[in-house]
# Entry
Amino acid sequence: MHGDDVASSMTSITTQTVSKATEVFLEILKVWMARERQRKLQNPDDKSPDLSGGEVTYQRLKAGGEVSMLPSFSKEDFRELTARAKALDIPVSAVQEKEKENTLSVFFLKSDKEAVNSIVQDIVRQKLSQPEQTERMITVEKEQAEGFQMYCGNHDIPVTFLETTDGGVKCIFSSAYEKSIEKAAQNFKDMRKELQSVSLDVRTENGKPGIAVIDTGQGKKIEMNFCTMAKLERVMKERLGFDGVKAHEAANALTSKLTPEQQKYFLSGSRQLEQMSYYERNIRFEDDNILTDGYCFNRLQLQKEKTAKLTVTDEKTGKFAVLSENITDRKIVEQNIRRYLGLQDDETVNALLNKAQRLGFAQAPVQKQFKEYSIERDTQTGFAVTGGNTVLRLDLSDKKTAAKALTDTFGMTASKAERVIRKAADQSVTENLLNRIKNSAAGKMASDALRHKKKERGSRT
# Structure
């Protein structure tokens, strides 16, 4: 490990890389969350707890599935983490670490691990870009990063890690902990020297792989069936007296000796990120409606899927809707936009719908153009518009809703819808009623004339 100037060019490259990776991951996460929403809609009998995003109790979080933990997290950063997690509908919980006033252990569902890590990375990136920098940084070997983080957590030293473009890892910490980090780095180095007397190997007996651990310093040996890394660490803590950090570092050394298949099982439990075929960020048109300015449109497609997705994110609230290329029914798209973005304003919804339409994620409004429309006001506040076989009843007291209904149902322009409403408003209810009675009477008379007309039969002889 060696000291580094936080404002170095490498930091700039690193933070830019992490920012991009975080951005891409969060878009994948939105698609994954949309799948979960759809799954719950399709499986209403699913009794798994529906956790809301943001801070929840540990007991409620644990009821939602397997829990993972991030140690040594500052209270100040947790407030920012909670706000972002709430926007992404990710539940998190925190417990103050024993005898550590400003340090928390953060808990979250294991399925959300990558999402939480990405949020944490982005929080650190923002801190590093602040004008008055109070953060410090050292470089850590990539394979030592997790163990060193655990060590710092045990000693109440809040740290965060950023991976650099050259494969190294930067350990970020407050300048107030500079002396503590120096001591921690030395102690960690000494602990790794102790591990030189510990060897781990994979041995095959009767066709079945197993793990052999030999600690020459203690004169102890462990032989066990092949298992996951977590179980191996637990056995070494119980039978060799290793602490958590030492057990993790020892188990981590075995990874390089495994075949790809063995490694996959040994490290099982962490969800891998899905790969994308393409990713197009913040799509804009020169003639965009000004009402779409506060919304970010990102288009992406995962390699395992045949259809593209469009994420529409409210940049102010963090709320988002995910639209699919194979579900473009305009009514369904509108429902998703209203529901997940929490929108009530019809003009904003229409602006977002029209942009989604241009990108191929919503159908054009149904056009039912007729040469003439029948407009009849039949009450003080109500009127009917007939076009072809379609009859639409509307309320004059809510002209905005009436105009929207006319444009949606008949495909009218906004100006034509206004003209129709004006014509209805100018009509007299009494005159329309008299005309209806008059027309009804005229029709009855014509019908009666035909009904009572007798056929001349001629005389009988």
Q: What stands out?
A: Confidence is low (pLDDT under 50) at residues 1-19, 269-274, 449-461.
